[in-house]
Design a protein that fits this description.
Number of helices: 27
Shape: globular
Distance between the termini: 15 Å
Radius of gyration: 26 Å
Number of strands: 16
Oligomer: single chain
């Protein structure tokens, strides 16, 4: 079991389930006639695909079933009366979080006889299509030990994701058990990359098709409840109400609502359905700020199920219920760590420590995306006020919204919520927009509330994302915990000591003297060279963030982006390469962050050579960025700091 799976399941039972799955898959994939060949493991020749497919006939349904049960009726039943809401939901990425390939309308992976190679492990696959089927073609894989020297052609039957990247699942032929193509497709870049490269994970020397992962983990938040998944002698048998996150995920089961409303039509003066005085459907807008946020938090949180008899996450939870009756919402505290230990005696203290580190900063703030509820509940505006998820976000834009549905769907924000209006509804604009408070010009990005109080210190989806814990910048916390602060993520050329001094002078924060290099060296440079992988990823993203580029200047970025582009972590290399291409002199760089290591290093050497050749044209560098007045990098200091890099493995649990 991966620690990243904590969010989705009751841990003790999940360990048992994963063990059962492993044993079942070993049995169902075993070929009794012969052992897997030791040589000649080749991809299926395109001319032989039909022949191989003819051998691959699933004994049962090839993917999980979509079948409303109990009081659930599915989103189609909502359309007749709620046309606008259905239309806007249909435009959302929630709807297409999971899709059956046969009915998918957001399917953007390239399956035109594409060969993809994971250079880190030396394994090659092909993605193709034939007779209307999308195919994953692979050599004999350790997780499918069948004796087919010509390899496998496996039919793609399901997708996960449709906003930034898309993952693909193939039928294993054993019940509804799915296997995962070990590559994902990046939507914007229009390219395939190894799945591990899409996340901030420690480098690996293997890949995996992760059989049963979707059935046992992804199902819990990427589909609409109720959900049922069990292991049988034929693999997983899985049924969901609806693929994707649909109406009943947020409003609860719709059957009794429909009966209630039909009864009112038949008897306008009556009280609706027999035995009901009020409509049982839930409208999150009408719930308290706490309960409405818990509807979102049931998935957008790091939580442990309290139901130790089931591996499913939030078993029995319905919108409007108190979430704490179903799950323990984790906090970055010793108390939560102890709770984790109490429900999972199989995890060592060290493993739990690593799991907490991969989810929370040392000061308790959540550090990974998709877990915004964990951030919200640490915010005074929620704890002592009325701030909720729906204060800024809307699941259905109004008919008067001037934006396109595509623009709204990006973050599902209410109109105007990218501005200070998100805060000045409660906080007096005249007081907090004043120069005496912001210490920045009113028209500058430094005067915008969110840039100071919701900095981009959470990570996910190959980018930095705003923290959903609203707090104030603190150089002291950065020094003690490693969590970057808003000031140094914008003023990339300034030291932590510079920030500490400003915060003391402006806001009366206790004076704190920084030690060593933090006194004189840019905090961004320090995080680039000495930080852990998560810090390096965040600062690499900020080299490409427009407010930081404008304030800090970009003429000194190249050497540090070159260092980050040579990082051990694929995701850090990707983010750094994207920032490098924003610099005009490197816009045409052919750097491939998952290409062969030798080719990557050649491109980086060329970047540094170009920097060296043009250094005489550069001037006015701050000493804090370790570039002298002649435009020459202070190699000795850079190497000294680089050798002090935090190499503790990081695998952020997105």
């Amino acid at each position: 079991m991966k620690l990243a799976d904590l969010k989705y399941r009751a841990i003790p039972v999940s360990l048992f389930v994963v063990g059962v799955v492993a044993m079942v898959l070993m049995l169902v994939f075993r070929n009794s006639d012969s052992e897997p060949p030791e040589t000649d493991h080749r991809l299926v020749a395109r001319s032989n695909v039909s022949k191989v497919l003819s051998r691959w006939t699933p004994r049962k349904a090839d993917r999980p079933r979509e079948q409303p049960a109990g009081d659930h009726i599915g989103s189609v039943a909502c359309k007749e009366c709620h046309a606008h809401e259905h239309h806007t939901w249909h435009a959302s990425y929630h709807r297409t979080m999971t899709q059956a390939v046969s009915t998918a309308d957001r399917l953007f992976g390239d399956f035109n006889n594409v060969t993809v190679t994971n250079h880190a492990i030396g394994r090659t696959y092909r993605l193709d299509k034939q007779d209307g089927k999308l195919l994953f073609l692979t050599e004999n894989h350790s997780e499918i030990p069948l004796s087919r020297s010509e390899g496998f052609a496996l039919p793609i039957v399901m997708t996960t994701g449709s906003h930034h990247m898309q993952a693909y699942w193939f039928a294993t032929g054993e019940g509804q058990t799915l296997g995962m193509v070990p590559f994902v497709y990046l939507r914007k870049e229009k390219r395939w990359i190894p799945r591990n490269a899409a996340f901030l994970n420690a480098p690996v020397t293997f890949d995996s098709i992760e059989p049963g992962r979707w059935n046992n983990i992804c199902i819990n938040c990427h589909t609409t409840p109720d959900r049922f998944s069990k292991v049988s002698t034929n693999g997983f048998e899985t049924t969901v109400t609806e693929f994707g996150i649909a109406c009943e995920s947020c409003h609860g089961p719709g059957k009794r609502h429909l009966e209630f409303q039909r009864a009112l039509v038949d008897n306008p003066k009556g009280s609706g359905a027999v035995g009901a005085d009020t409509d049982p459907i839930v409208n999150p807008k009408k719930l308290s700020p706490a309960l409405s946020s818990q509807v979102c938090g049931s998935c957008h949180s790091i939580s442990i199920s309290l139901n130790t008899n089931s591996p499913a996450f939030r078993v029995g939870f319905r919108p409007g219920n108190e979430l704490s009756n179903y799950v323990h919402v984790m906090r970055g505290t010793k108390e939560s760590a102890r709770h984790w230990s109490s429900v999972d005696p199989f995890q060592s203290r060290e493993e739990i420590s690593v799991g907490m580190h991969n989810r929370f900063w040392p000061d308790g703030q959540v550090r990974v995306t998709g877990r915004e509820y964990n951030g919200l509940i640490e915010t005074p505006c929620h704890q002592r006020g009325t701030l909720s998820c729906l204060s800024c976000h809307t699941l259905h834009p109004s008919r008067r919204d001037s934006r396109s549905l595509e623009e709204w769907a990006d973050d599902q924000l209410k109109e105007g919520m990218r501005t200070d209006a998100a805060c000045t509804r409660c906080h007096e604009a005249g007081k907090y927009a004043d120069l005496k408070h912001t210490h920045h010009r009113p028209e500058s990005t430094g005067s915008q509330c969110q840039n100071c109080h919701m900095p981009h210190t959470t990570y996910g989806l190959l980018k930095a994302i705003r923290s959903h814990t609203i707090d104030s910048p603190s150089a002291l916390k950065s020094n003690e915990t490693g969590r970057p602060n808003a000031c140094n993520l914008c003023h990339l050329d300034r030291s932590l000591a510079w920030t500490a001094s400003r915060l003391t002078d402006w806001f009366g924060q206790p004076r704190h003297e920084m030690k060593g290099d933090w006194q004189d060296v840019s905090a961004a440079v320090m995080w680039s060279l000495t930080g852990d992988a998560a810090q390096r990823a965040l600062v690499a993203w900020h080299y490409n963030w427009e407010p930081a580029r404008s304030v800090s200047g970009t003429n000194w970025f190249a050497p540090y982006l070159a260092v980050l582009a040579d990082d051990d972590y694929d995701a850090v290399r990707y983010i750094a390469a994207r920032a490098l291409r924003r610099l005009p002199e490197y816009a045409g760089s052919d750097f491939d962050f998952v290409g062969p290591a030798s080719a990557r290093k050649q491109v980086i050497a060329a970047i540094m050579q170009r920097w060296s050749q043009t250094q005489n044209d550069r001037k006015n560098f701050r000493e804090s960025v370790l570039i002298d007045a002649r435009g020459k990098v202070r190699d000795g200091e850079l190497q000294r700091l680089y050798l002090d890099r935090n190499t503790r493995p990081i695998s952020l649990a997105e």
